[in-house]
Amino acid sequence: MFTQVTKGIKVSVETTFEGTFFKNYKMHYAFGYTITIENLSRDIVQLTARHWDIYDALKDIETIDGEGVIGRKPVIKPGKSHTYSSGCLLASPIGAMHGYYHMVNLATTEEFEVEIPAFKFAAPFAIN
Fold it and tell me: Is 0.85 surpassed by the pTM of this model?
């Protein structure tokens, strides 16, 4: 598990290898990840946007920006958490992701970024 705390917001990531398949006559490697965002602060916060840099050993870095996560902009109360799962396809069996969430403190209206720890993807057969 990969974990990082920024401004009282703890982000934890677990990854899984989902398998391989052919798409457009090329082999692709499917990876999943589950992220838990825990509010360790005293204020209510809302996740409004995300930024990802996806590293694939056989391709250039892909950058993705978007609103919320999985179609939601969760509000997280102190002591509570929000968990979601997603995934990505890589052209190689090895890669990584890193990014940040754009958050708003609903008590003060302060906007801030919460780092998502860099996490790695590796198909089991690629690391033996």
Answer: yes
Name, in order, each residue with C-beta under 8 angstroms of 53's C-beta and a sequence gap of 6 or more.
Answer: 61, 62, 63, 97, 98, 99
- Looking at the chain, the whole-number percentage of residues with pLDDT higher than 70 is 98
State in words which class domain 2-126 has: mainly beta
| Domain extent listing, the chain | 2-126
Kindly state the DSSP code that residue 127 receives in the 8-state scheme: -
Q: What is the pLDDT of residues 2-22, one digit of tens each?
A: 999 999 999 999 999 999 988
The alpha carbon torsion through 104, 2, 5, 117 (nearest 10 deg) reads: -60
Question: Going by C-beta distance under 8 Å and a sequence separation of 6 or more, which residues neighbour residue 65?
Answer: 49, 50, 51, 52
